[in-house]
Amino acid sequence: MFNKSIQYSYAAQKHQRHRLLKFLLSFLILFIVYNCLTAFLVSVWVIDNETMQPGLNSGDRLLVLSFALSDSKNNLPFKRGSIVLVNRMNERDRKLPLRIADGIVRFFTAQRVSVFSGDGQHIKRVIALPGDEISMTDYIFRVKAGANPFSLTEFELSDKPYNPYIPQTSALWDSSIPFSGSMDPVILGPNECFVVSDDRSNTNDSRTWGPISPSMISARVILRFWPLNKIELF
After folding, report:
1. Most buried of 2, 18, 35, 117, CB within 10 angstroms?
2. Cis preceding linkage at 54, omega within 30
C-alpha cells in the first residue's frame, strides 16, 4: 500500500512526465538532425533495377553526396563520368504531409523505404556538360568538350574507368531505327547536361528525355558500401 501511494503520488507522476518529455525532445532533435544530414550532406540510396549494370546491380547500397548547399551556377559539383542521382520530380508537387511522412518512414527504416518509392528519381552517369557536342556510334558516346576542337570517347573524359553493357543489335538495323545505337551530333545548351544508363539497352535517360538541367541532378554517388565484397569509391 505504501509503495502504491508513492507510485501514484504527484511527485512520481511529475517525474514520469518529465522523463517522457525528455524522451520526446531527444527524439525530435535526433529526427531534425537526421533530416538535415540527409537533405544537405549525405544519404543512402538503394539500387532497385538493372539500368546501371554491369557496374551497379539491383540491391547495391550507395552513399550519395547532396548538392543542396553547392553553388552549381558557377562550378558544377560533378564531372563527365560521375554517377549521379537525377531528380525529375517537382518537389512542389509533393504534399507537405507526405513529405513529413516520408521523412519519418525513411528515419525508422534507415532510408531503405520511402513513401515516394523513388518514382522520378534515377541513378545515371553524366556523359556531357553544358556546351559540349555529343554523338553516339554503336552505343559508345563521343564528346567534344567545350572549346576543344577534338572529340574524345566518353571513357577518355572520365576520371574512373567503367564498362557499359553494349547490347547486340540486328544487322538489319540502321540509324533511322529508334535506339539503334547511333545518334547524330547534338550541341548542349548553357544549361544542359546529358545523362545515360550504363546498360545501353535501357533508354530511360537523356536519349529519350533529352538533355536535362544541372538543377535536376541533386546528388553524386561517392561510395558503394553494400555488398561488402564490392565496396568501392566513386
Report:
1. 35
2. yes
Inter-residue contact 188 to 129 (CB < 8 Å) = yes
Give the distance between the most distant pair of CA atoms in the chain: 93
Note the residue count of the chain.
Answer: 234
Which pLDDT tens digits describe the chain residue by residue (234 residues)? 445 555 567 777 777 888 888 888 887 787 777 666 666 678 888 898 999 999 999 999 999 988 754 544 557 899 999 999 998 775 555 565 666 676 676 666 666 666 555 567 899 999 999 999 999 998 999 999 977 889 999 999 999 999 999 988 766 666 666 567 888 899 999 999 999 999 998 878 999 899 999 989 989 999 999 999 999 999
String of b and e for 71-80 (b: at least 16 CB within 10 Å)?
Answer: eeeeebbbeb
- Return the half-sphere exposure (C-beta side, CA atoms, 13 A cut-off) of residue 119: 6
What HEC string does 124-186 produce?
Answer: EEEEECCCCEEEEECCEEEEECCCCCCCEECCCCCCCCCCCECCCCCCCCCCCCCCCCCEEEE
Q: How many whole angstroms separate alpha carbon 74 and alpha carbon 88?
A: 22
Euclidean distance between CA atoms 172 and 35, whole angstroms: 53
Q: Is the link from the previous residue into 227 a cis peptide, with omega within 30 of 0? A: yes
Whole-number CA gyration radius for the chain: 24
